[in-house]
Amino acid sequence: xxxxxxxxxxxxxxxxxxxxxxxxxxxxxxxxxxxxxxxxxxxxxxxxxxxxxxxxxxxxxxxxxxxxxxxxxxxxxxxxxxxxxxxxxxxxxxxxxxxxxxxxxxxxxxxxxxxxxxxxxxxxxxxxxxxxxxxxxxxxxxxxxxxxxxxxxxxxxxxxxxxxxxxxxxxxxxxxxxxxxxxxxxxxxxxxxxxxxxxxxxxxx
Length: 205
What we know:
It is a peripheral membrane protein. Keywords: ANK repeat, Endosome, GTPase activation, Metal-binding, Repeat, Zinc, Zinc-finger. One of its GO terms (molecular function) is GTPase activator activity. One of its GO terms (cellular component) is endosome membrane. The chain has 205 residues and is α+β, with helices and mostly antiparallel strands. Helices cover 53% and strands 21% of the residues. The protein has a seven-stranded antiparallel β-sheet, covered by helices on one side. It is elongated, with a radius of gyration of 41 Å.
């Protein structure tokens, strides 16, 4: 009985292996037939892919060229307008009395220390600002002769400077280092000009 069982086991295993091989053969044959039918479509896709690669390279080159032109225009714009030396000049002898004017950020004196953008100007020995163009002037410093101005580096913002009077101080921020220096020089020049114009009356006061 043991010999019979062993003999039976041999051909049963061989039969299972043969069935497995047939299944494998059928599977791969069906796969080959299916992919063979798709062969024309895959060749068409390969041709389209080659064209897509070429189109993508052309588009990338065009975009890089456009990007370079935009960078050149932006650089030219900032050089011509934003940081033009003529934009930061001041004139203590201006006919309209406005020594210098432009936008500055002003730190509020409240507990929140918020920063607000205002239109500042130096005129009639005073530092004033407006919230809007037609608003009434708000006087920050009544007499620049009683003030000092200094740059501030130990602060969370760049390009800041402080105008200090006997009663209060005003922290301001310019848009660039060049503008900050221009405003500081404008305040200093206005102080000097005010002393030259009315030294006697100042000493009497």
